[in-house]
Amino acid sequence: MRRWLTLTFVLPILSLAIVGEQRGPGPVLAAHGFLASLDRDQHRRTVLPFDSDYRTRWRYTPADRQGIAWKDLDPVQASMAHGLIKATLSDLGYMRTQTVRDIEHALSQIENSPRRDKDNYLFTFFGAPDTTGKWGWRYECHHISLNFTYDGEKMVS
Which has the higher per-residue pLDDT, 6 or 87? Predict the structure, then answer.
């Protein structure tokens, strides 16, 4: 019960700190850059139809996921991924997502567990980033599940 109360009150407050003023290139431009950096196979694994049932599945616990993981990105692609996150989140939100990944790495060392992998956080897109149509993207793994839906350039969810 206590856990649910914490989630009920803390998550809305945390979300206010995560999504902030957009600076630099907007999410549409950043998403285009990220997707353009992927090869054909990576792109096929990463982009699903907007109306995919997978878009509405929410979880932050270990699970089978679709998309492309950090470990599958080369340095240029990883830089574009960071740019996408920065274009969408506030500075504090970006810092928190990176801290969660760093903690995952520390826990893997402490637990000596291959199940903990800071590079197993995945990016998935739903539809094509567009300034007029509906599209979305997700960034998730253990302890992070960020889902964004846009109507053109406007974040609606």
Answer: 87
